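User:
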Amino acid sequence: MSAHCQHHHGAHAHASANVDPRYRRILWIALIVNAAMFALELGAGLRSGSAALLGDAIDFLGDAANYGLSLWVLSMALAWRARAALLKGASMLGFGVFVIGRVLWGLWQAIPPEPFTMGSVGLLALAANLGVAVLLYAWREGDANMRGVWLCTRNDALGNLAVLGAALGVLGTGTAWPDLVVAAIMAGLAISGGASVIRDARKELASSAA
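Assistant: Predicted structure:
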């Protein structure tokens, strides 16, 4: 998941002059796909009452931010890359806290989400991540950053499968527990990842100031 798939912007910037234009185009496609899926899952999660969809939306947000930062700050100074990473980390952290709040609210209400919306959107999210993974497959043996991008996209499919499992669990049990458990795990990863990004960005800001 994107919470543990942070790109090394310093190394990426150093090698940016040698980036294949086709790879850059694929990063743009991945950015657009992930941003669109974030918006879709956010809306579907709110409509269906699924906290797991909201948690998976955070994952798409984190990936979109990773791709966007990789494309946007290639030629910028370290301090600006660190400030952009701070914004990304704060966004992940904020959404993670929001989903935790949604999980707590779900525990209090005990109203199961709509499983068919969860399943259909989860399948679409899985298809989106697999499609991006196929596009990135040719660069799976590239440098560390390229390998990281591909592996993270591949691993994101596991989060989609977890959402599908939660949908089946809700359908089978008629309770909200499968949805809330998956959402809590995803939110915890987002909070952990956001905090890690913020720590690393603050270190980079300190080193650039020094």
